[in-house]
Specification:
six-stranded antiparallel sheet, 36% helix, Transferase(Phosphotransferase), domain 1, Protein kinase domain-containing protein, Protein_kinase_ATP_BS
Length: 696
């Protein structure tokens, strides 16, 4: 685990400054040197003093005294406080609160980018520090990732003499860092509060993307020209932070927001999220692990262990605010067993022993507190997952209920229409029967009259048949009897209502019901109902994020897409488009993966997914001779896995994700100057961005 970096003391370094005993060197610049020191009480300080081969000149002494006075005016929870100073000493010095925490630069370099919510939380702290500084008339002039330390209770802005009062007109870029300076500073103009806001925007862009907001080919002069012209290169900036950061990076100082407005914007972005001042709530685990390592080393230093005058010499001589990293110290000597024979230890030794014991107890309490916080975070995460699953389940049930209601309403409408049609046809048949009976009762009488009635009945039953000839009137009374019987049979049989005296079955056939009143029953054919998987696909909308991804074996990790917050660490894919009820086509040239579902009701849903890359994630790659071959970039693989799917050989870990260089040159995948790690890079997102990775 990495940690602090403390340089070795040399022959020209003092052993003490005022009441502070020097432990090691933190950094050195052109005008001063910064030491790590311990006071008589177990408290650490960063002590700054001037560099001078001979006596300190009056001009340098007055400048140093003015710097001390400016720093003492600042009182903010987000800055390092001045503890003590003596500008009139033979070697002037100023003791500043020492904060055992990594800088944002080191965190991004070693632990990758944090989520958007963490960027907002960090930005709010830095903006609050600028509100205090600018309220005192102080312009920092050098806001950058290396000048912001991050303990778990919130960021601290440090300056070590870089800041200057607004009425001290100093121009030039000798004290700044080109990639994080403002265009007016790069042109040699006056630094103002708006310059600090621009540098804040550049710093937050670096947090979110992992690089400064400019194309960089390694040439400092060309980079300076780009900065002076405001030629920004903002590809890869998360959509959630775009408006916030772009406003800070306005080329004209007058177009940038005021510090208080920036702070309000950052805080508004956190509305609705759980309230917590601890970084353990906002930061990813790899960040909190490095921060906690610094805390443990700080506790050890305050207890009296750690580097001394012979610490190693690898402090960065070019950056007073360089990341503070230390190598493991030599192991302790043999432990002396404490017995009553040593009860005569001196008061100083006893006090030191008791102090160590108290410090160990404090460390143990701190570890317990950290464990409790981690457990609470895990419970909170589990509760959120449970709530999300319950919400999705409720949505699926509600959608299924809506579909069921729609089907029931449609069936009811069909049954009602069928009943109305049956009633209408039955009424028409009865009307025809009554009309026929009435015609028989008033038909012609006398010779042939009875025969006419029989003929009329036959015509009603068989309208298209040839009329039956009339009976001979000489047949006598038997003809009347036969005619009467024929009328009775016709009235009972009712052949004209044959279509209505049969009930329509659900299969479309007919069944004779005799003389009973016609009845109607309707049972619709069974229609397919969408499954839970079908509904899960249709619930996905364009712009959603899902944790589902290629499983490396030609399939997906989930049977149905599992939606997550786009800021979540497991948001591996973003939905470029979601098309339901028709076949969709995805843009293969834009690296879109197609995920299609054919529902139980034959409805086709197509999701087009684009991979969300982030440093620290791993994927698999084939071998090409002794080198890296083709990669399955859509696959998310465990970085510590000891197996890969058949056909693959390497597990690759992403170290950088950034926009493609406009000139088409290969990216510089090195993590620091002199980095000899073998990296491989790929163009992604349709060729607009690149990722760097190394085999793990």
């Amino acid at each position: 685990m990495s940690g602090m970096k403390i340089g070795r003391l040399s022959g020209d370094d003092p052993m003490s400054l005022g009441p502070y005993r020097i432990i090691g060197r933190l950094g050195s610049g052109g005008m001063g040197r910064i030491y790590l020191a311990r006071a008589a009480a177990p408290r650490l300080a960063a002590v700054k003093t001037l560099l001078a081969e001979g006596p300190v000149s009056d001009i340098d002494r007055r400048r140093f005294a003015r710097e001390v006075a400016l720093a003492q005016r600042v009182d903010s929870a987000f800055t390092a406080r001045v503890l003590d100073a003596d500008a009139g000493a033979g070697r002037p010095w100023m003791a500043i609160e020492y904060i055992p925490a990594p800088s944002l630069a080191e965190l991004v370099r070693t632990a990758g980018q944090p989520p958007a919510s963490a960027v907002r939380w960090i930005g709010a702290g830095v903006a609050a520090a600028l509100v205090t500084l600018h309220g005192e008339g102080i312009v920092h002039r050098d806001i950058k990732p290396a000048n912001v330390l991050l303990p778990l209770d919130g960021p601290r802005v440090i300056d070590f003499g870089i800041s200057h009062a607004g009425d001290i007109t100093r121009t030039g870029l000798t004290l700044g860092t080109i990639a994080f300076t403002s265009p007016e500073q790069a042109r040699g103009g006056l630094s103002t509060a708006a310059s600090d806001i621009y540098s804040l925007g550049s710093t937050l862009f670096h947090l979110a993307v992992g690089r400064p907001p400019y194309a960089d080919d390694g040439d400092a002069l060309r980079l300076l020209a780009r900065v002076s012209r405001g030629e920004l290169e903002l590809s890869g900036l998360p959509r959630e932070l775009d408006g916030l950061i772009r406003s800070c990076l306005a080329p004209a100082p007058g177009d940038r927001p005021q510090p208080a407005d920036v702070l309000a914007q950052f805080k508004s972005g956190l509305v609705g999220l759980p309230v917590s001042d601890s970084g353990s709530r906002w930061l990813p685990p790899r960040w909190t692990a490095l921060i906690e390592e610094y805390e443990r080393q700080g506790l050890a230093l305050r207890a009296g262990s750690g580097p001394g005058p012979h610490a190693h010499a690898d402090a960065d001589a070019d950056a007073p605010t360089a990341d503070q990293r230390t190598r493991p110290v030599a192991g302790p000597g043999p432990t002396r067993q404490y017995t009553r024979a040593h009860a005569g230890e001196s008061a100083a030794d006893r006090a030191a022993r008791e102090a160590r014991q108290a410090e160990e107890q404090a460390q143990e309490r701190e570890r317990e507190r950290a464990a409790q916080e981690r457990a609470a975070r895990e419970r909170e995460r589990a509760a959120r997952e449970h709530d999300r699953a319950e919400r999705e389940r409720a949505e699926r049930l509600a959608q299924r209920d809506r579909l069921a209601r729609d089907m029931a309403e449609m069936r009811a409408e069909q049954e009602l229409a069928a009943r109305e049609r049956a009633e209408r046809e039955r009424d028409e048949a009865r009307s025809r029967a009554r009309a026929t009976s009435a015609g028989n009762a008033t038909g012609p009488t006398g010779a042939g009259g009875t025969g006419g009635a029989a003929t009329g009945a036959t015509r009603a039953a068989t309208p298209a048949a040839t009329p039956t000839p009339a009976k001979n009137p000489s047949s006598g009374g038997g003809g009347w009897i036969l005619a009467f019987l024929a009328v009775v049979v016709l009235l009972i049989w009712q052949p004209w209502a044959s279509d209505d005296s049969n009930s329509v079955s659900s299969t479309g056939g007919y069944s004779n019901t005799g003389i009973s009143t016609p009845s109607y029953s309707y049972t619709p054919s069974s229609e397919p109902t969408p499954s839970d998987t079908d509904l899960a696909f249709r619930a996905v909308k364009t712009g959603d994020c899902v944790s589902s991804h290629d499983d490396g074996h030609g399939g997906w990790t989930d049977p149905a897409p599992r939606r997550v917050d786009c800021d979540a660490a497991d948001a591996y894919n973003r939905v470029a488009s979601a098309v339901s009820y028709t076949d969709g086509e995805c843009d293969a040239d834009a690296d879109e993966e197609t995920w299609t579902n054919v529902g139980e009701d034959d409805v086709v849903t197509t999701l087009c997914l684009t991979r969300k890359y982030a440093p620290g994630q791993c994927f698999i790659a084939e071998a090409d001779g002794d080198g890296i071959g083709a990669a399955s970039l859509q696959t998310v693989w465990g970085c510590g896995a000891d197996t890969v799917p058949e056909g693959y050989r390497y597990v690759m870990q992403i170290t950088r994700y950034e926009g493609k260089r406009p000139d088409g040159r290969a990216p510089d995948c090195r993590q620091y100057a002199g980095d000899l790690t073998r990296y491989t890079w790929w163009e992604v997102d349709g060729g607009t961005n690149v990722i760097c990775a190394n085999a793990v």
